[in-house]
Amino acid sequence: MNSRRPQGEGSVYRLPNGRWRGVVNLGWHAGKRRRKYITRGTQAEVVRQLRRLTAAAAAGRLPIERAPKLRLYIAPALGKVPLDKLKPSEVSEFTVHSCCVCRRGAGDCCMRFTADR
Asked: What pLDDT does 68 receive?
C-alpha cells in the first residue's frame, strides 16, 4: 500500500509529544513560501482539517499575508490576558497607547482618538 499523500494535499506527521501535525502549502508570496500548520490529537482529525484548508486555499479564502502587528504590538500588550477576562477599559487603553506608539508620539492623534469615545 502506498503511504504517500497525493500532490497538493499537504503533509501529515506525528510530533514527539504524540500529537499530529498537518501542513498545507499556500504557495509563494513576495518570494517566500507560505504554509498553514494545524495540530490535532488524532491523524483522522488532521486529515479532515487539511481537506477543509486545502479547499479553502483553492477557493482563495485563506489569507496568504501575515499580520505582523499582532506579533509586534498586540501580543506583547494583551497576549497574556485570556479573551474572556479582557476588559473594555484594557482594550481602550491599548488602542490609545498604540495610537501614540504607531505615530511616534503624535499627541494630537491621541487626543482625537480619546475624544471619539
From this structure: 64
